[in-house]
Amino acid sequence: MGKEKGVKEIEDLPGVGPTTAEKLRDAGYSTLEKIATSSPHELSELSGMSVDNAKKAVEAARQATTLEYTSASDVYSARKALGRITTGSKDLNELLGGGAEVKAITEAYGRFGSGKSQLGFQLSVNAQLPRDKGGLEGTVLFIDTEGTFRPERIESMAESAGLDPTAVLDNIFVIRAENTEQQILSIERADKLIREKNVRLIVVDSLMALFRSEFMGRGALGERQQKLNSHIHRLQSLADSHSLAVYITNQVMDNPAILFGDPTTPVGGNIIAHAATTRLYMRKSKEDKRIVRLVDSPNMPEGEAVIKITESGIKD
Ligand code: ADP
Ligand code: MG
Fold first, then answer.
1. What tens digit of pLDDT does each residue of 165-201 get?
2. What residue spans define the domains of the chain?
Protein backbone atom coordinates (compact mmCIF):
# COMPACT_ATOMS: atom_id res chain seq x y z
CA MET A 1 0.00 0.00 0.00
CA GLY A 2 2.10 2.83 -1.36
CA LYS A 3 -0.53 5.25 -0.08
CA GLU A 4 0.84 4.87 3.42
CA LYS A 5 4.26 6.08 2.38
CA GLY A 6 5.10 9.41 3.88
CA VAL A 7 3.01 8.81 6.99
CA LYS A 8 5.27 10.26 9.63
CA GLU A 9 2.97 11.99 12.06
CA ILE A 10 -0.57 11.40 13.19
CA GLU A 11 -1.81 14.23 10.93
CA ASP A 12 -0.67 12.20 7.94
CA LEU A 13 -3.19 9.46 8.69
CA PRO A 14 -6.32 9.28 6.54
CA GLY A 15 -9.27 11.05 8.14
CA VAL A 16 -7.11 12.81 10.75
CA GLY A 17 -7.20 16.59 10.32
CA PRO A 18 -5.63 19.17 12.61
CA THR A 19 -8.61 19.20 15.02
CA THR A 20 -8.74 15.43 15.38
CA ALA A 21 -4.96 15.34 15.77
CA GLU A 22 -5.18 17.89 18.56
CA LYS A 23 -7.85 15.83 20.34
CA LEU A 24 -5.80 12.68 19.97
CA ARG A 25 -2.67 14.38 21.29
CA ASP A 26 -4.51 15.82 24.27
CA ALA A 27 -5.68 12.32 25.11
CA GLY A 28 -2.11 11.06 24.95
CA TYR A 29 -2.34 9.48 21.48
CA SER A 30 0.53 11.46 20.06
CA THR A 31 2.52 8.83 18.19
CA LEU A 32 1.85 6.49 15.30
CA GLU A 33 2.82 3.56 17.54
CA LYS A 34 0.18 4.51 20.05
CA ILE A 35 -2.50 4.75 17.33
CA ALA A 36 -1.31 1.49 15.74
CA THR A 37 -1.92 -0.37 18.99
CA SER A 38 -5.25 1.29 19.81
CA SER A 39 -8.70 -0.05 19.11
CA PRO A 40 -10.76 1.87 16.51
CA HIS A 41 -13.55 2.15 19.08
CA GLU A 42 -11.46 3.96 21.67
CA LEU A 43 -10.06 6.26 18.98
CA SER A 44 -13.52 7.04 17.71
CA GLU A 45 -14.77 7.71 21.21
CA LEU A 46 -12.13 10.19 22.17
CA SER A 47 -11.67 11.96 18.82
CA GLY A 48 -15.22 11.99 17.49
CA MET A 49 -14.22 10.36 14.18
CA SER A 50 -16.40 7.54 12.87
CA VAL A 51 -15.43 3.97 13.77
CA ASP A 52 -14.91 3.26 10.07
CA ASN A 53 -12.49 6.15 9.69
CA ALA A 54 -10.79 5.18 12.92
CA LYS A 55 -10.27 1.65 11.50
CA LYS A 56 -8.59 3.14 8.45
CA ALA A 57 -6.41 5.37 10.60
CA VAL A 58 -5.32 2.45 12.79
CA GLU A 59 -4.60 0.34 9.72
CA ALA A 60 -2.53 3.13 8.15
CA ALA A 61 -0.65 3.67 11.41
CA ARG A 62 0.17 -0.06 11.52
CA GLN A 63 1.50 0.06 7.95
CA ALA A 64 3.60 3.08 8.77
CA THR A 65 5.21 1.70 11.91
CA THR A 66 7.94 -0.82 11.60
CA LEU A 67 9.97 -2.39 14.35
CA GLU A 68 13.51 -1.20 14.24
CA TYR A 69 16.39 -2.82 16.01
CA THR A 70 19.00 -0.72 17.75
CA SER A 71 22.44 -1.98 18.61
CA ALA A 72 23.25 -2.09 22.30
CA SER A 73 26.05 0.42 21.75
CA ASP A 74 23.58 2.89 20.27
CA VAL A 75 21.32 2.33 23.27
CA TYR A 76 24.33 2.97 25.46
CA SER A 77 25.25 6.29 23.82
CA ALA A 78 21.62 7.38 23.95
CA ARG A 79 21.49 6.53 27.67
CA LYS A 80 24.67 8.51 28.33
CA ALA A 81 23.06 11.54 26.72
CA LEU A 82 19.91 11.26 28.86
CA GLY A 83 19.27 14.21 31.08
CA ARG A 84 19.31 14.07 34.85
CA ILE A 85 18.23 16.49 37.54
CA THR A 86 20.59 17.03 40.43
CA THR A 87 19.10 16.38 43.87
CA GLY A 88 21.28 18.99 45.55
CA SER A 89 23.29 16.31 47.35
CA LYS A 90 26.44 14.87 45.82
CA ASP A 91 26.03 11.62 47.74
CA LEU A 92 22.43 11.15 46.66
CA ASN A 93 23.34 11.99 43.06
CA GLU A 94 26.01 9.32 43.13
CA LEU A 95 23.60 6.80 44.59
CA LEU A 96 21.24 7.54 41.70
CA GLY A 97 23.94 7.53 39.04
CA GLY A 98 23.79 11.29 38.57
CA GLY A 99 20.36 12.42 39.76
CA ALA A 100 16.71 11.91 38.84
CA GLU A 101 16.71 10.50 35.33
CA VAL A 102 14.47 11.53 32.45
CA LYS A 103 12.28 8.88 30.79
CA ALA A 104 12.03 7.23 34.18
CA ILE A 105 9.91 7.28 37.31
CA THR A 106 11.79 7.94 40.53
CA GLU A 107 9.77 7.06 43.62
CA ALA A 108 10.53 8.12 47.19
CA TYR A 109 8.64 6.44 49.99
CA GLY A 110 8.93 6.95 53.71
CA ARG A 111 7.15 8.04 56.85
CA PHE A 112 5.68 11.46 57.50
CA GLY A 113 8.42 14.07 57.74
CA SER A 114 11.08 11.93 56.09
CA GLY A 115 11.72 14.54 53.39
CA LYS A 116 9.81 13.22 50.38
CA SER A 117 8.10 16.52 49.63
CA GLN A 118 11.27 18.52 50.28
CA LEU A 119 13.06 16.44 47.66
CA GLY A 120 10.16 17.14 45.29
CA PHE A 121 10.54 20.89 45.89
CA GLN A 122 14.29 20.70 45.39
CA LEU A 123 13.94 18.82 42.10
CA SER A 124 11.34 21.39 40.98
CA VAL A 125 13.90 24.14 41.50
CA ASN A 126 16.84 22.20 40.11
CA ALA A 127 15.01 21.15 36.92
CA GLN A 128 15.19 24.83 35.99
CA LEU A 129 18.96 25.07 36.34
CA PRO A 130 21.20 25.23 33.27
CA ARG A 131 22.37 21.83 32.03
CA ASP A 132 25.95 22.37 33.18
CA LYS A 133 24.62 22.95 36.70
CA GLY A 134 22.63 19.73 36.80
CA GLY A 135 19.31 21.00 35.46
CA LEU A 136 17.24 20.58 32.33
CA GLU A 137 16.38 24.24 31.69
CA GLY A 138 12.73 23.33 31.82
CA THR A 139 9.54 23.94 33.75
CA VAL A 140 7.68 21.72 36.20
CA LEU A 141 4.19 20.27 36.56
CA PHE A 142 3.52 19.69 40.26
CA ILE A 143 0.46 17.65 41.28
CA ASP A 144 -0.22 18.28 44.96
CA THR A 145 -2.65 15.71 46.37
CA GLU A 146 -2.06 16.38 50.07
CA GLY A 147 -2.13 20.18 50.12
CA THR A 148 1.47 20.35 51.24
CA PHE A 149 3.01 22.31 48.36
CA ARG A 150 4.90 25.25 49.89
CA PRO A 151 6.03 28.12 47.63
CA GLU A 152 8.02 29.52 50.57
CA ARG A 153 10.28 26.49 50.40
CA ILE A 154 10.69 26.91 46.64
CA GLU A 155 11.64 30.54 47.20
CA SER A 156 14.37 29.70 49.74
CA MET A 157 15.74 26.88 47.60
CA ALA A 158 15.76 29.05 44.46
CA GLU A 159 17.65 31.82 46.25
CA SER A 160 20.20 29.35 47.50
CA ALA A 161 20.62 27.93 43.98
CA GLY A 162 21.32 31.42 42.65
CA LEU A 163 18.09 31.58 40.65
CA ASP A 164 15.49 34.34 40.56
CA PRO A 165 12.79 33.08 42.97
CA THR A 166 9.93 34.78 41.11
CA ALA A 167 10.93 33.23 37.80
CA VAL A 168 11.33 29.84 39.46
CA LEU A 169 7.86 30.05 41.03
CA ASP A 170 6.36 31.15 37.70
CA ASN A 171 7.80 28.04 36.07
CA ILE A 172 6.14 25.57 38.42
CA PHE A 173 2.57 24.77 37.40
CA VAL A 174 0.75 23.50 40.45
CA ILE A 175 -2.46 21.49 40.43
CA ARG A 176 -4.09 20.92 43.78
CA ALA A 177 -5.93 17.63 43.17
CA GLU A 178 -8.75 17.03 45.64
CA ASN A 179 -9.84 13.63 44.35
CA THR A 180 -8.52 10.85 42.14
CA GLU A 181 -10.51 12.10 39.13
CA GLN A 182 -8.66 15.41 39.27
CA GLN A 183 -5.37 13.65 39.84
CA ILE A 184 -5.90 11.35 36.85
CA LEU A 185 -7.15 14.18 34.61
CA SER A 186 -4.21 16.41 35.48
CA ILE A 187 -1.97 13.79 33.90
CA GLU A 188 -4.34 12.80 31.07
CA ARG A 189 -4.46 16.43 29.94
CA ALA A 190 -0.83 17.32 30.54
CA ASP A 191 0.32 16.86 26.97
CA LYS A 192 -0.43 20.39 25.80
CA LEU A 193 1.16 22.09 28.81
CA ILE A 194 4.25 19.91 28.46
CA ARG A 195 4.70 20.89 24.83
CA GLU A 196 3.91 24.57 25.21
CA LYS A 197 5.83 25.21 28.43
CA ASN A 198 8.76 22.82 28.00
CA VAL A 199 7.89 20.81 31.11
CA ARG A 200 10.88 18.63 32.03
CA LEU A 201 9.71 17.31 35.38
CA ILE A 202 6.39 16.03 36.69
CA VAL A 203 6.00 15.66 40.45
CA VAL A 204 3.10 13.73 41.98
CA ASP A 205 3.13 14.33 45.74
CA SER A 206 1.76 11.94 46.80
CA LEU A 207 0.68 9.29 44.35
CA MET A 208 -1.40 7.17 46.71
CA ALA A 209 -3.01 9.47 49.30
CA LEU A 210 -6.27 10.03 47.41
CA PHE A 211 -6.45 6.49 46.03
CA ARG A 212 -6.09 5.16 49.54
CA SER A 213 -8.84 7.28 51.04
CA GLU A 214 -11.29 6.89 48.17
CA PHE A 215 -10.98 3.17 47.62
CA MET A 216 -11.38 1.67 51.05
CA GLY A 217 -11.79 -2.00 51.82
CA ARG A 218 -11.12 -5.19 49.93
CA GLY A 219 -14.04 -4.76 47.57
CA ALA A 220 -12.60 -1.59 46.08
CA LEU A 221 -9.07 -2.86 45.70
CA GLY A 222 -9.49 -4.23 42.18
CA GLU A 223 -10.88 -0.98 40.84
CA ARG A 224 -8.24 1.03 42.68
CA GLN A 225 -5.38 -0.99 41.26
CA GLN A 226 -6.83 -0.79 37.77
CA LYS A 227 -7.07 3.02 37.89
CA LEU A 228 -3.68 3.30 39.51
CA ASN A 229 -2.17 1.09 36.85
CA SER A 230 -3.42 3.22 33.99
CA HIS A 231 -2.44 6.44 35.82
CA ILE A 232 1.13 5.33 36.37
CA HIS A 233 1.49 3.99 32.84
CA ARG A 234 0.34 7.32 31.54
CA LEU A 235 3.08 8.96 33.61
CA GLN A 236 5.67 6.62 32.14
CA SER A 237 4.39 7.26 28.63
CA LEU A 238 4.69 11.04 29.13
CA ALA A 239 8.19 10.53 30.49
CA ASP A 240 9.14 8.54 27.39
CA SER A 241 7.51 10.65 24.74
CA HIS A 242 8.70 13.99 26.13
CA SER A 243 12.03 12.93 27.65
CA LEU A 244 11.04 14.24 31.03
CA ALA A 245 11.64 13.08 34.58
CA VAL A 246 8.83 11.88 36.85
CA TYR A 247 9.18 12.04 40.63
CA ILE A 248 6.47 10.45 42.78
CA THR A 249 6.22 10.22 46.53
CA ASN A 250 4.56 7.35 48.32
CA GLN A 251 3.22 6.60 51.75
CA VAL A 252 4.16 3.60 53.84
CA MET A 253 2.57 1.06 56.15
CA ASP A 254 3.92 -1.50 58.55
CA ASN A 255 3.91 -4.92 56.99
CA PRO A 256 2.85 -7.33 59.76
CA ALA A 257 4.50 -10.21 57.90
CA ILE A 258 7.93 -8.71 58.53
CA LEU A 259 8.78 -9.83 62.08
CA PHE A 260 12.45 -8.95 62.14
CA GLY A 261 13.97 -5.80 60.73
CA ASP A 262 12.24 -2.73 59.40
CA PRO A 263 8.56 -3.45 58.62
CA THR A 264 8.13 -0.19 56.66
CA THR A 265 6.63 -1.02 53.27
CA PRO A 266 5.46 1.31 50.50
CA VAL A 267 1.74 1.21 49.75
CA GLY A 268 0.27 0.60 46.30
CA GLY A 269 1.46 -2.97 45.92
CA ASN A 270 3.05 -4.54 42.88
CA ILE A 271 1.73 -2.01 40.44
CA ILE A 272 3.96 0.74 41.76
CA ALA A 273 6.78 -1.66 42.54
CA HIS A 274 6.91 -2.67 38.88
CA ALA A 275 6.26 0.74 37.41
CA ALA A 276 8.81 2.76 39.37
CA THR A 277 12.18 2.67 37.66
CA THR A 278 14.04 3.67 40.79
CA ARG A 279 12.77 3.35 44.37
CA LEU A 280 14.15 5.32 47.29
CA TYR A 281 13.33 4.72 50.93
CA MET A 282 13.77 7.85 53.06
CA ARG A 283 13.99 7.86 56.81
CA LYS A 284 14.77 10.29 59.60
CA SER A 285 18.11 10.30 61.29
CA LYS A 286 19.59 12.73 63.81
CA GLU A 287 18.48 16.37 63.58
CA ASP A 288 18.27 17.53 59.96
CA LYS A 289 19.83 14.32 58.58
CA ARG A 290 17.92 11.85 56.46
CA ILE A 291 19.02 8.45 55.25
CA VAL A 292 18.09 7.66 51.68
CA ARG A 293 18.27 4.02 50.66
CA LEU A 294 18.29 2.95 47.02
CA VAL A 295 15.99 -0.04 47.11
CA ASP A 296 15.51 -0.79 43.45
CA SER A 297 17.31 0.37 40.34
CA PRO A 298 17.86 -1.22 36.91
CA ASN A 299 21.55 -0.34 36.88
CA MET A 300 22.79 0.93 40.24
CA PRO A 301 23.73 -1.18 43.27
CA GLU A 302 21.74 -0.94 46.48
CA GLY A 303 23.18 1.55 48.87
CA GLU A 304 22.57 4.50 51.11
CA ALA A 305 23.25 8.22 51.12
CA VAL A 306 22.94 10.65 53.98
CA ILE A 307 21.45 14.03 53.11
CA LYS A 308 20.55 17.11 55.11
CA ILE A 309 17.33 19.08 54.88
CA THR A 310 18.23 22.69 55.58
CA GLU A 311 16.47 26.03 55.29
CA SER A 312 18.09 26.45 51.87
CA GLY A 313 17.20 22.97 50.67
CA ILE A 314 18.72 19.52 50.29
CA LYS A 315 22.46 19.43 50.95
CA ASP A 316 25.18 16.90 51.69
P1 ADP B 1 7.26 14.17 53.92
O2 ADP B 1 8.18 13.03 53.78
O3 ADP B 1 6.13 13.88 54.88
O4 ADP B 1 6.80 14.75 52.63
P5 ADP B 1 8.66 16.66 54.12
O6 ADP B 1 9.40 16.46 52.86
O7 ADP B 1 7.59 17.68 54.11
O8 ADP B 1 8.10 15.29 54.67
O9 ADP B 1 9.72 17.01 55.23
C10 ADP B 1 9.36 17.72 56.35
C11 ADP B 1 10.63 18.01 57.11
O12 ADP B 1 11.44 18.90 56.35
C13 ADP B 1 10.35 18.70 58.40
O14 ADP B 1 10.12 17.77 59.40
C15 ADP B 1 11.64 19.46 58.61
O16 ADP B 1 12.57 18.61 59.24
C17 ADP B 1 12.15 19.73 57.22
N18 ADP B 1 11.91 21.14 56.85
C19 ADP B 1 10.79 21.68 56.36
N20 ADP B 1 10.94 23.01 56.20
C21 ADP B 1 12.18 23.32 56.59
C22 ADP B 1 12.95 24.51 56.69
N23 ADP B 1 12.43 25.70 56.32
N24 ADP B 1 14.20 24.43 57.13
C25 ADP B 1 14.73 23.27 57.51
N26 ADP B 1 14.07 22.10 57.46
C27 ADP B 1 12.82 22.11 57.01
MG1 MG C 1 4.94 15.27 51.99
1. 999 999 999 999 999 999 999 999 999 999 999 999 9
2. 10-64, 78-315
Closest-lying ligand 1 atom to the alpha carbon of residue 148: 7
* Ligand that comes closest to the CA of residue 252: 1
Question: pTM of the predicted model, to two decimals?
Answer: 0.86
**212 C-alpha to ligand 2 centroid (Å):** 15
* pLDDT value, residue 5: 60
Q: Helix H segments across the chain?
A: 18-26, 32-36, 40-47, 51-64, 72-80, 90-96, 116-126, 151-160, 165-170, 180-188, 190-197, 209-214, 221-242, 269-275
Closest ligand by atom to 110 CA: 1
Percentages (nearest 5) of helix, strand, coil residues in the chain: 45, 20, 35
Residue range 258-266: mean pLDDT, rounded: 91
Model confidence at 286: pLDDT above 70: yes
Q: In CATH, what number does 78-315 get?
A: 3.40.50.300
- pLDDT confidence band for 123 (50 / 70 / 90): very high
Nearest to 313 by CA among 290, 279, 282, 284: 290
Closest ligand 1 atom, residue 110 Cα: 2
Q: Which residues pair with 310 in a beta bridge?
A: 313
CATH of the domain spanning 10-64: 1.10.150.20
